[in-house]
Amino acid sequence: MSSQRAVDSLSLSELKQAFEAAASAYEELKGKGLSFDLTRGKPAAEQLDLSNDLLNLPAGDFRSANGTDVRNYGGLTGLLELREIFAELLNVEVDNLIALGNSSLEVMHDLVVYSLLYGTPDSARPWSKEAEIKVLTPVPGYDRHFAICESFGITMIPVPLLEDGPDLDVVRKLVAEDPAIKGIWCVPTYSNPTGTIYSEEVTRELVSMTTAASDFRIIWDNAYAVHTLVEEAPKAHDIVAFAREAGNPNRPLAVASTSKITFAGAGVAFLAASDVNQQWFQKHMSKRSIGPDKVNQLRHVKFFGDAEGVRRHMAKHRDILKPKFDALLEILENRLGGLDVANWTKPEGGYFVSLDVVPGTAQRVVQLAKEAGISLTAAGSAFPLGNDPDNTNIRLAPSFPTLAEVKDAMDGVATCVLYAAYEHALAGK
Amino acid sequence: MSSQRAVDSLSLSELKQAFEAAASAYEELKGKGLSFDLTRGKPAAEQLDLSNDLLNLPAGDFRSANGTDVRNYGGLTGLLELREIFAELLNVEVDNLIALGNSSLEVMHDLVVYSLLYGTPDSARPWSKEAEIKVLTPVPGYDRHFAICESFGITMIPVPLLEDGPDLDVVRKLVAEDPAIKGIWCVPTYSNPTGTIYSEEVTRELVSMTTAASDFRIIWDNAYAVHTLVEEAPKAHDIVAFAREAGNPNRPLAVASTSKITFAGAGVAFLAASDVNQQWFQKHMSKRSIGPDKVNQLRHVKFFGDAEGVRRHMAKHRDILKPKFDALLEILENRLGGLDVANWTKPEGGYFVSLDVVPGTAQRVVQLAKEAGISLTAAGSAFPLGNDPDNTNIRLAPSFPTLAEVKDAMDGVATCVLYAAYEHALAGK
Questions:
Q1: Looking at residue A234, what DSSP letter applies?
Q2: Is the pLDDT of residue A103 over 90?
Q3: Which three-class secondary structure state does DSSP give residue B322?
Q4: Is the Cβ pair B101, A105 closer than 8 Å?
Q5: Cα–Cα distance for residue pair A248/A237, rounded to 1 Å
Q6: Which of A3, A402, A417, B327 has a CA positioned 20 to 30 A from the CA of residue B143?
Q7: B110 part of contact set with chain A, CB < 8 Å
Q8: Which residue of chain A is at minimal alpha-carbon distance from B299?
């Protein structure tokens, strides 16, 4: 590149020169006719292959450990032996954990629906009877959480996500004052998209803090609990026990799934919660379902064997994912390091890198990338209603493309970031 | 028995004698220490065995016909090749049919939830914003339909179920007058529990009749469309097309599933509806799910092959079920025929026989049976809120027990019916 100096330190002529170089690089990029997709946290085919034994399981067997015929109706709580495996991994008591259908998004959606239509066990009335319902959304965050709230007309209040979880000074003040604030969305391990790991201190404070709403809920989406890029995932916080110890047993509703462990569309989901919350959930769920797919649960039990089997399996995912994350980060560092045009997270797990480009240019970068054949998640998608007030954040998802594609795509993204940065700086002169 | 004469024709002393004989038979029954369960429409293990090939499928394959990797996220409408098989069986256009998760109860529940929280495409506002919502429930009917309504505070208005469907004179008048009546629950083929088959005339009238509510909906639960006990199931009415022809395209919401075709807890469900309804459902479903379990859908495609494969498979179910229904009906006829103590349906398909005992004695019969070790569905369960005004109806479900158990259990049930009938007649003297 024309410069390894920070963009702000350039004279106007140097800036013009840098822009010309970036524009020329971008034209070259467009000429390549690329077609890459970095939009969603989808596992690559190579990762899905790791679970292909599931395509022949349960290999004629149809009995759970206690003799239940999994082919027939019944059993709202799922197979005990599967709950035991994930109770260990999620670090919750097995009595507080149930195994459900093929997506934790469904569970979270239904938790909100039941709260709206029935109210929680601690609600004076169904949430839908309140004049307004609000929830806190640490940002950047997960767009599908926001979509649920948006669809039901729930007001979202963004709160900053710090190194160890949401900014508690902000959170504490808001929840203490406003009884309309009924909850907070959290992704406690390798947050989407920042890779943040919630500390035990933050976790304990979230279940302990005083809330004006008696029915305040933490939706604890532990989607990436075991999805480490390093040797070992952090031990999950037993938020259900923490909450019980803090005297707010019903506050957390924790979910997880095997979507990114086995098959993204054919896994098993989990709900961990207090006894009271479990009774509440299962009572309402029983109107909807005679029980989850127990054959698929047995399939997963046979595939994993035990919790250590899941950890071994996740190490294979890591071996596929880590080179892609390394390449992504290396390209960002090589192409953008020291130029003061971007910051990015360096996650130790999960599926994403959160990239902050020059404020005011995120949409432009995504547009430029799109025109060059590189699909990125829409700018702002990690914010409620897609509204990133600084127009700075872009979520990068390197899992689905091949390693070679990640390299080519990210090199292209870096070109777009530079182009937009110099263009923006020039416009400001 | 002491008499083959109708109970009303007996003198007091004859009645006393009949009662003594029945009481003695009942004491003998209790002494047998039976333990039978005729409560639910569960497939027997022998029926589930018919689908055991599913326990090894999709045998390593993971591509749908159009090349989609079924292991990964995506695809709200389900696999086209599975939709094609069931479009033929359900006699709807494939474009109007989508394949979903493992239970049509879930689909029906969510249809109601979306109507409550969002309103239908034809609603002025979400149903939950109305002062009162009412639905028509043909009786006797399916208790899980009623449980959904009860849980959401929806008022149920029972209407009589005749030989060819709901009593349209009653239905027409109600729906024409009351805009709060938003729908009707129908089981058009081999109704639960009566075995009723809706005629084309009734079906066409249901989609044509004038309704005060612009957003009136028919939940068309075609759970038993292919579950015939005779040579061939009746051809399904294409209610989606009928409704379009009648100018009320969005009125029907039709569902079905493979729960009683393959595995009761691990099947595939379907929704047939107009384009507008499909867009509406999928829009709201997309907040809840990234897509149904496509691996299980592929598993079913490979297992069935085509619609004829489903029909062949259902013939095997019939061969297992028919002897149980025949035995049940034969015992009722032999033990209760001509005594004027009971009437019952003689279904050509489905999972149930609807038994009407002497009015005022259904609860007593169920209690007597229970004390003799025979579990029957709770009296009144085929009525909204469990309230059978005549205390006469009992749903019999002969599928789960073995043939020998059905015979012993039904002989016991007949004893209980007689005992309660004579006891009741004596009390009235």
A1: P
A2: yes
A3: helix
A4: no
A5: 16
A6: B327
A7: yes
A8: A55
Q: Nearest by CB to B105, from A69, A103, A290: name it.
A: A290
Interchain pair B296, A296: CB under 8 A: yes
Scan residues 229-258 of B and list those with Cβ closer than 8 Å to A: none
Residue B249 contacts residue B121 (beta carbons within 8 Å): no
Q: How large is the C-alpha radius of gyration of chain A?
A: 23
Cβ–Cβ contact A62 with B under 8 A: yes
pLDDT category at B22 given cuts 50, 70, 90 is very high
Scan for tokens 């040797």, then name that residue.
Answer: A231
Candidate from B72, B102, B144 with C-beta closest to A293? B102
Cis link prior to B234 (omega < 30° from 0)? no
CB contact under 8 A, B266 and A101: no
Which class would CATH give B7-47+312-427?
alpha beta
pLDDT in tens, B261-314: 999 989 999 999 999 999 999 999 999 999 999 999 999 999 999 999 999 999
Contact assignment for A265 to B75 by CB distance below 8 Å? yes
pLDDT of B3 over the 50 cut: no
What average pLDDT is seen over chain A?
A: 97
Q: How many CA atoms lie within 13 A of B172 on its CB side?
A: 11
Average pLDDT over residues A276-297: 98
Q: What is d(CA B408, CA A231) in angstroms, rounded to the nearest whole number?
A: 62
Domain ranges of chain B: 7-47+312-427, 63-305
Residue A354: beta bridge partners? A395
| Chain B: closest CA distance from residue A59 (Å) | 5
Q: How confident is the model at residue B8 (pLDDT cuts 50, 70, 90)?
A: confident
Residue B228's pLDDT is 98
Q: Residues 383..402 of A with a Cβ closer than 8 Å to B: which?
A: none
Burial grade of B398 (CB within 10 A; 0-12, 13-18, 19 or more): buried
SS3 B150: helix
Q: How far is CA A289 from CA A75, A148, A285, A292, B142, in A?
A: 10, 21, 6, 7, 14
Residue B323 neighbours by CB distance under 10 Å: 14
Tens digits of residue pLDDT in A137-184: 999 999 999 999 999 999 999 999 999 999 999 999 999 999 999 999
B45 contacts in A (CB within 8 Å)?
A: 69, 72
Q: Determine the pLDDT at residue A429.
A: 83
* Cβ proximity of B269 and B222 under 8 Å: no
Fold of B63-305: Aspartate Aminotransferase; domain 2 (3.40.640)
Q: Which residues lie across from B310 on neighbouring strands?
A: none
Distance CA B331, CA B414 (A): 8
Residue A51: its chain B contacts at CB < 8 A?
71
Residue window 328-387, chain A: list those with CB within 8 Å of chain B. none
Contacts of A55 in chain B (CB under 8 A): 57-62, 295
Phi and psi torsions of B31, nearest 5°: -70, -15
Please state, in angstroms and rounded to a whole number, the distance separating the CA atoms of residues A141 and A381: 8
Is this prediction's pTM over 0.90? yes
Dist. CA A227–CA B401, nearest whole Å: 46
